[in-house]
């Protein structure tokens, strides 16, 4: 059996499952166990109110039962919100929260270096979340940590949680390391699943847009009995992929760098460069070269890539709870998710934007001479080969775990909770590729024709293409946490509450990565392959590749923590302008077996001058420990040589600070993980107020000011020339800085010896090495941000039912970064600063309707992007200085049948997303993370989705 075969759910079975769901149709998920814990309806409400909480409820962000986290706001997303969004995955659900970087965007698994990670959330859009192995947003399920997923990621993927099993979602957009430890820098997202379910429900959705579909089907079976309950919930989801050619807004624009005024030259047919400036469009021969001079073939790379990949998942969540005695209860939940993501990255190209240098040899003379235009002995050829979907990536994801919890009533209001969990994930990535060394050798041997790849030797093509980047990561997380809380004593303002606890958890991370390995033997390297060249001589066209040994890492974390809540004024001693005054302090000490120890405190204040107005404040410290995926060796250290050099304006000849470039110069780019990466540390502050005026029943409004000061951001340096040779110049070593004003052969030998893989040949003349750019992941920069959150809703009773107005917004006042120690802070460019989700809904009898506006503000581009002042194929281009706003309107309708029999507990839904088929605003700069023609916002276009649910 092929070792790379994947377990795919047969489409026929998938559609049959959906048909069964649509035929039987299920009821919506159970409502909140305590609806007041985070608001109702379709508003994403803030600020869980202490007065409304049941004594046994533990809200995210605090250790103490029955209270909201003092000083901190909580954003609650109810089951009604889940239904209204039409989300079929938790990633889609999170796209509706303005405080998250994925808001109003089409989120898909993200990564770097062709290594897809997972759908990780990013509160406050902090930097480095796509490139660091860990995350600054902590994801929990029922208060439990989850194992990380992905190849170079130790962050959990929320999509392992079936949306149908989610009872509510609590988001604390504030530092939480004093309670939870690592990762809770920007905040905590806690998915709270159903505690119990009785009966049977099935449901399904089918949505479609132009050249796209998505579907999901789920079934839940449960039973309650005296003192206990059990249920199992299963969900299947799948969606189609979208290519750049499927959406008009996905496209490449002419560039000012590389080949000014052009898109790309590596096309089919391709192009030939002779010398430094003479371009010939293929096909041509020596006899017709004059006519081909200046006739340049261009193509749009974005057409043949999937900007939204194909994906399918199976998810199961099971729960059993039992009251063991009057004072002891037990609950255990288990989950299992398996799925695959399929990505297409287009035809094979040597290196995007770079040609293959063809040197004339005796073996390739006939091919070369047919395209010679003079007496030259080498040419630069731009080409692509293979079918349009030649380069593909498949990511298989499997994870499972269980979370037992014992809760003991200790008497006198005291309670002990012991929470355990064990979870494991297995992620495999296979990126088809070609062997660059084999390609160069085959060209030299006359076995590959770069001018017409289809005319190449078939056996040589098979060897060149028998290559892939194979990666597999297995992760384990075992966690044990115990908390005791209760009331210490009474003050005039109420009971002083305390919670203390301890936690120990162990992480294991095992990775195997092999680059340019034979597809037939991914764990054992590749053998050399010889073929006879055109002279009949046996030539090694692919050298042997030794296997890279797997890496296994682990760490153990031991922690103690506590929280004290002191009510100075409360219901029993309230006075004028002092209805409530509550102080809290929390702290946690964590000891890591590999990166040392840390202590993080947090202080909170809640002040209520009258019962309908509350002020709150919180200050704390948080941290994110370096991920095991960020350790040296987990990424294959490598070096490549490229002509990506500084813009002319930065060179000394033009008055700039950088050394001049000699013809033929290249730069060396080193990649991997740097040694001794340290934790990211942050100070967080939040100030806010909540108002529910008695003279306006049904109205509430909240505002929160927040500030984050993050030190030692773990991330990859930028790779674009403007940043590399500009703000991040500290990562560059220039030849002029070396002894004698140039690199030496020893410098080059040491550089090559420091990496595991050399991707292409270094310059033959050491004098042509202009600079060494260190692109290794590290603690790269410091970052500051502050802003405002707004949230409100207004419920109005009417003669025909009710009207609901709701809104949730985030306005970033500032985002600044410090790219190197001692450098000044500067504004982070090209980021949207305002995000809003507003809705108007009405209930008329059994029908509920809602219109939603998702707004993402535009921003100025600094520096300006795009090619200026040229007309290409009849279209004139100018420099772009601003990205426009992105406004998307969605419609939602729900009809609840109240009949008997089949019509009982039957619900029909209709979602129309992006009603006006609005395209993201244009971005004409070089693509960022494969985003062609747009930046920061993405849409499927107008999509219609039908849903039906039924409970028995």
TrEMBL record:
<dbReference type="InterPro" id="IPR039426">
    <property type="entry name" value="TonB-dep_rcpt-like"/>
</dbReference>
<keyword id="KW-0472">Membrane</keyword>
<keyword id="KW-1134">Transmembrane beta strand</keyword>
<feature type="domain" description="TonB-dependent receptor plug">
    <location>
        <begin position="74"/>
        <end position="188"/>
    </location>
</feature>
<keyword id="KW-0675">Receptor</keyword>
<dbReference type="InterPro" id="IPR036942">
    <property type="entry name" value="Beta-barrel_TonB_sf"/>
</dbReference>
<keyword id="KW-0813">Transport</keyword>
<keyword id="KW-0998">Cell outer membrane</keyword>
<dbReference type="InterPro" id="IPR000531">
    <property type="entry name" value="Beta-barrel_TonB"/>
</dbReference>
<dbReference type="InterPro" id="IPR037066">
    <property type="entry name" value="Plug_dom_sf"/>
</dbReference>
<protein>
    <submittedName>
        <fullName>TonB-dependent receptor</fullName>
    </submittedName>
</protein>
<feature type="domain" description="TonB-dependent receptor-like beta-barrel">
    <location>
        <begin position="377"/>
        <end position="915"/>
    </location>
</feature>
<dbReference type="Pfam" id="PF00593">
    <property type="entry name" value="TonB_dep_Rec_b-barrel"/>
</dbReference>
<dbReference type="InterPro" id="IPR012910">
    <property type="entry name" value="Plug_dom"/>
</dbReference>
<keyword id="KW-0812">Transmembrane</keyword>
<feature type="signal peptide">
    <location>
        <begin position="1"/>
        <end position="33"/>
    </location>
</feature>
<dbReference type="Pfam" id="PF07715">
    <property type="entry name" value="Plug"/>
</dbReference>
<keyword id="KW-0798">TonB box</keyword>
<dbReference type="InterPro" id="IPR006311">
    <property type="entry name" value="TAT_signal"/>
</dbReference>
<keyword id="KW-0732">Signal</keyword>
<comment type="similarity">
    <text>Belongs to the TonB-dependent receptor family.</text>
</comment>
């Amino acid at each position: 059996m092929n070792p790379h075969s994947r377990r795919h759910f047969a489409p026929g079975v998938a559609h049959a499952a959906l048909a069964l769901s649509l035929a039987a149709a299920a009821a919506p998920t159970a409502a909140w166990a305590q609806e007041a814990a985070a608001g109702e309806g379709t508003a994403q409400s803030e600020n869980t109110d202490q007065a409304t909480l049941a004594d046994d409820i533990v809200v995210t962000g605090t250790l103490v039962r029955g209270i909201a986290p003092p000083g901190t706001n909580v954003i609650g997303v109810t089951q009604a919100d889940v239904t209204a969004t039409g989300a079929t995955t938790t990633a889609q659900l999170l796209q509706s929260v303005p405080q998250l970087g994925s808001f109003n965007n089409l989120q898909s698994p993200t990564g770097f270096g062709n290594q897809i990670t997972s759908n990780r959330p990013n509160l406050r859009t902090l930097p480095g979340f796509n490139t660091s192995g860990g995350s600054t947003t902590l994801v929990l399920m029922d208060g439990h940590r989850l194992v990380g997923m992905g190849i170079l990621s130790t962050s959990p993927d929320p999509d392992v949680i079936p949306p149908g099993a989610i009872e509510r979602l609590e988001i604390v957009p504030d530092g939480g390391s004093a309670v939870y430890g690592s990762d809770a820098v920007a905040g905590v997202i806690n998915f709270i699943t159903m505690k119990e379910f009785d009966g049977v429900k099935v449901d399904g959705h089918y949505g479609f847009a132009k050249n796209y579909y998505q579907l999901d089907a789920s079934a839940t079976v449960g039973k309650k009995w005296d003192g206990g309950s059990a249920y199992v919930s299963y969900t299947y989801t799948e969606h189609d992929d979208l290519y750049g050619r499927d959406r008009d807004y996905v496209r490449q624009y002419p560039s000012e760098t590389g080949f000014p005024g052009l898109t790309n030259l590596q096309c089919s047919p391709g192009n030939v460069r002779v010398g430094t400036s003479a371009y010939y469009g293929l096909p041509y021969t020596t006899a017709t070269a004059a006519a081909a001079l200046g006739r340049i073939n261009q193509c749009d790379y974005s057409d043949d890539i999937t900007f939204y990949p194909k994906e399918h998942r199976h998810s199961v969540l099971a729960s059993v709870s039992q009251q063991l005695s009057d004072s002891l209860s037990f609950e255990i939940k288990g989950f299992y998710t398996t799925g695959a993501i399929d990505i297409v990255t287009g035809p094979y190209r040597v290196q995007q934007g770079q040609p293959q240098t063809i040197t004339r040899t005796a073996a390739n003379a006939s091919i070369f001479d047919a395209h010679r235009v003079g007496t030259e002995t080498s040419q630069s050829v731009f080409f692509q080969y293979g079918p349009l979907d030649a380069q593909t990536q498949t990511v298989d994801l499997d994870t499972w775990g269980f979370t037992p919890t014992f809760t003991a009533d200790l008497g006198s209001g005291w309670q002990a909770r012991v929470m355990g969990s064990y979870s494991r994930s297995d992620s495999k990535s296979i990126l088809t590729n070609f062997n660059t060394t084999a390609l160069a050798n085959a060209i030299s041997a006359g076995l590959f024709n770069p001018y017409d790849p289809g005319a190449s030797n078939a056996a040589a093509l098979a060897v060149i293409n028998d290559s892939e980047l194979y990666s597999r990561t297995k992760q384990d997380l075992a966690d044990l946490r115990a908390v005791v809380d209760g009331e210490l004593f009474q003050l005039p303002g109420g009971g002083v509450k305390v919670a203390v606890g301890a936690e120990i958890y162990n992480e294991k991370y095992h990775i195997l990565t092999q680059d340019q390995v034979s597809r037939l033997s991914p764990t054992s390297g590749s053998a050399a392959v010889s073929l006879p060249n055109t002279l009949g001589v046996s030539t090694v066209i692919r050298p042997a590749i030794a296997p890279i040994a797997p890496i296994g890492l682990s760490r153990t974390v031991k922690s103690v923590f506590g929280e004290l809540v002191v009510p100075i004024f409360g219901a029993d001693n309230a006075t004028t302008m002092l209805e409530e005054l509550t102080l809290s302090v929390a702290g946690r000490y964590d000891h890591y077996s590999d990166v040392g120890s840390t202590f993080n405190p947090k202080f909170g204040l809640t002040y209520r001058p009258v019962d309908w107005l509350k002020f709150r404040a919180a200050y704390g410290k948080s941290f994110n420990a370096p991920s095991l995926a960020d350790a040296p060796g987990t990424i294959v250290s490598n070096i490549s040589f490229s002509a990506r050099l500084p813009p002319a304006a930065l060179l000394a000849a033009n008055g700039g600070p950088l050394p001049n470039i000699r013809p033929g110069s290249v730069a060396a780019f080193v990649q991997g993980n740097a040694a001794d990466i340290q934790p990211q540390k942050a100070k967080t502050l939040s100030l806010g107020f909540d108002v529910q005026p008695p003279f306006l029943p049904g109205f509430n409004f909240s505002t929160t000011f927040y500030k984050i000061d993050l030190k030692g951001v773990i991330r990859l340096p930028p790779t674009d020339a403007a940043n590399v040779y500009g703000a991040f110049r500290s990562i560059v070593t220039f030849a002029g800085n070396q002894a004698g004003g140039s690199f030496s052969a020893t410098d080059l030998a040491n550089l090559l010896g420091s990496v595991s893989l050399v991707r292409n040949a270094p310059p033959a003349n050491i004098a042509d090495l202009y600079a060494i750019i260190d692109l290794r992941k590290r603690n790269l920069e410091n970052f500051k941000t502050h802003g405002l959150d707004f949230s409100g809703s207004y419920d109005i009773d009417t003669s025909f039912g009710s009207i609901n107005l709701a809104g949730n917004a985030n306005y970033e006042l500032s985002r600044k970064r410090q790219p190197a120690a001692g450098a000044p802070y500067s504004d982070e460019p090209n980021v949207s600063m305002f995000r809003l989700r507003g809705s108007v809904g009405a209930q008329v009898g059994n029908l509920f309707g809602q219109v939603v506006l998702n707004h993402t503000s535009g921003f100025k581009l600094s520096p300006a992007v795009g090619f200026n002042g040229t007309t290409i194929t009849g279209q004139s281009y100018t420099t772009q200085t601003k990205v426009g706003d992105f406004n998307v309107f969605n419609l939602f309708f729900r009809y609840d049948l109240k009949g008997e029999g089949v019509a009982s507990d039957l619900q029909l839904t209709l979602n129309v997303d992006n009603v006006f088929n609005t395209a993201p605003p244009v971005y004409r700069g070089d693509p960022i993370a494969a985003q062609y023609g747009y930046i920061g916002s993405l849409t499927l276009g107008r999509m219609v989705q039908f849903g039906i649910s039924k409970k028995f």
